[in-house]
Amino acid sequence: MYLAAVASPRQQVAFPAYFALTSPALRDAARGPLRRALHNGRYCSGVQGSCPCHTCEQWIADLAQAGYDRLRTSLAGNVPQVRNGEPVREMQTIVEWVTSLEATTQDIDTMARLLRGRPSDEEPSGLRAARAQLIRYQLISLEARISRKLAQSRGASARPDRDLMTSAWAAPLRENRVAFNLLVDAILRLRHGSRDLYGFSPEHIEQLNLDHPTARRLLRQTLDHLHALRPEFYLANVFQYLSEGDPLPWTANTPTNPEELLIQTEETQTIRRRLTPLLTTTGSPEHRVLERICAAATNPDPNLIEWAATELNLKPTQAEAQVREWVNQITQADLDWATEQCHP
């Protein structure tokens, strides 16, 4: 097949030729962004091991289709324009390249190998323009686009930071600039694969003039405020990202009247007195398990129960019952309080 096939008026000829020309280079260039956006930076392996997964393949096909559509529009005389109204010069160069006399004799597989390789001064100007417009241009903001699409597919906001910064309902959250900054940072970290709400970067904490315990307390207060203001936003943009793989029920009942509040306060004090010796006796198996339970509240730990069974010398069913009981107690005693007790 020759390069000129890309400009064929017959779609059944032109698209396979375009895909043969661009897909090897597009696949190479998209591998990193797709791995980061879809697999949290891990290696992508499909059902056959050496092939990308179906989702990655679909994105590569969609990118190829978008580039093909852009080229077909240009071949029809409607070359994309820059902001000042001038046509995109590189797209004009590609059109001239694939419709030239030389294109009728240039092997498309050879051109695909050159397109996939490093740029060189000797390569045709059309090839250099194709690398810029049909490969690199298609990958602009790819990770952000994938993140928004995945978020929308699961009911979350496409741009949670924008919603928080502009929505009228979020105005109370914006009153404390530092706490709001921590909230936006945490939600964006969740969106980009983190499962640790409190995984603040040292630079960020220093910039806000905070220490880690203070930042943690501020964020928890702001998350509680968000939950009260907009529970559906909280569930879609915070809870569902944290709950993936979480085997433990980190929930608490909210009192509905003053009497229940008084009873809960008394129970909280009782539970705190019961937990304090276990939380503060560093080095004991109970302390190690409770410390890991506290960490699992914001960074789900699927191996927690199995590890606790070994640590406490219990059967798995006994360990699960004990861990769940401690989860309920820590939730009622207050997670921040329990975490501080573990690290006096």
Structural features:
344 residues; elongated; 16 helices
Q: What is the end-to-end distance?
A: 72 Å
Poorly predicted tracts of residues: none
**Sheet with most strands:** none
For the record, the count of structural domains works out to: 3
Radius of gyration, whole Å: 28 Å
Please give the share of residues in helix: 55-70%
Query: Mean pLDDT across all residues, rounded?
Result: 83
% residues in beta strands? under 5%
Number of strands: 0
Structural class: mainly alpha
Structure notes:
The longest helix is centred in the first third of the chain and has 29 residues, at 11-39. This protein is elongated. It has helices at 11-39, 54-75, 89-98, 108-116, 125-136, 142-153, 160-166, 177-191, 202-207, 212-229, 231-242, 258-280, 285-296, 304-312, 316-333, 335-342. The termini are far apart. It has 344 residues and is mostly helical. It is built from 16 helices and no strands. It folds into 3 domains: 3-142, no CATH class; 155-242; 258-342, no CATH class. α4 packs across α5 (125-136), α13 crosses α15 (316-333) and α13 crosses α16 (335-342).
